[in-house]
Amino acid sequence: MRKKRGALEEEEKENAIQQKPNFPVYAIYADESGKTQDFLIVGSMWILNGIDTLYLYNSIKEWRQRTGFKHELHFNKINSGNIDYYRQVLEIVKNKISAISFKALSIERKGISNMVDALTLLYYYLLIEGVDHEHKTGRAPLPRNIQLWKDAEEVGADRLMLKQIKEKLEQAAIIKFDNNLRVDELRSIDSRNLELIQLADLFTGSINRKINVKGGDGEAVKDQFANEFLREFGLNNKLESFDGIGDCAFYTSL
Fold it and tell me: Given this model, what pLDDT does residue 53 score?
């Protein structure tokens, strides 16, 4: 009986795999910023064509080999001595990838007592609004799978956050997206181990620079890069409180 039951379970699993639709993927790489500043921010890079994920990874790997730049790409590390390397990476992203977009969501931090809960909701709303944006513009219409890879913070907090986000997404998939969104991988990973999260950091850092720092500390080189990054993907450099939606970018302040 055990053998028979086990065989039936394996058969059911195999049937489920075969019946599962092979939808294209929203592959989302995300980071957060502003935990001690005026505005809390989550930013993300969305790759809408699976082959582009590998292509972008390989392009950056080749660039590192060619230039000898070994350091992690991190907005806070930009200075006058390395900004040209960061500009080269921006050119790779802009010119090599056809189906990509950047999306961010922010909220005033004043009055927020539980940072993890706030970030959980920010990530959730970012994903929901992002899917809605890609579907309605026709750039990446449903049905699709969705994956999220966020920069790791604290192991326990990340696990709880991702579990809550997954549950909310699964509910939204039924209610809001008529079962046309399937929740796939949601993971936290150290950005040092995944360069695509490093690109999300550069975008999130650029947003943070505009709404939290605004050039106040005199580091003009970071202002230059933030302006260049946002301009390349069609975002208003002022980033005042507004809903800004374009073909390749989305920013909103709650």
Answer: 86
How many CB atoms neighbour CB 227 within 10 A?
15
Q: Are 126 and 44 in contact (CB under 8 A)?
A: yes
Residue with tokens 């580091």, as numbered in its chain = 219
Report whether 103 contacts 43 (CB < 8 A).
Answer: yes
Q: How far apart are CA 150 and CA 44, in angstroms?
A: 9
Which is nearest to 40 in space by CA: 102, 116, 151?
116
Read off the tokens for 205. Answer: 């850092």
Q: What is the pLDDT of residue 16?
A: 40
With CA atoms as reference, report the closest residue to 137 among 162, 113, 165, 101. Answer: 101
DSSP the chain: -HHHHHHHHHHHHHHHHHHS----EEEEEEEEE-TTSSEEEEEEEEE-SHHHHHHHHHHHHHHHHHH---S---GGG--TTTHHHHHHHHHHHHHH-SSEEEEEEEEE-TT---HHHHHHHHHHHHHHHHHHHHHHHTSSPSSEEEEEEEE---HHHHHHHHHHHHHHHHHHHHHTSTT-EEEEEEEEE-GGG-HHHHHHHHHHHHHHIIIIITTTTS-HHHHHHHHHHHHHTT--TT--SSEEE-SSEEEEE-
Using the predicted structure, report yes or no on whether residue 198 has a pLDDT greater than 90: yes
The structure tokens listed for 76 are 């806070």
CB 41 within 8 A of CB 106: yes
Closest CA to 127 of 101, 152, 153: 101
Query: CB count, 10 Å around CB of 242?
Result: 11
Complete domains list, the chain, with CATH: 26-253 (3.30.420.10)
Convert the pLDDT of each residue in 79-115 to its tens digit: 999 999 999 999 999 886 678 889 999 999 999 999 9
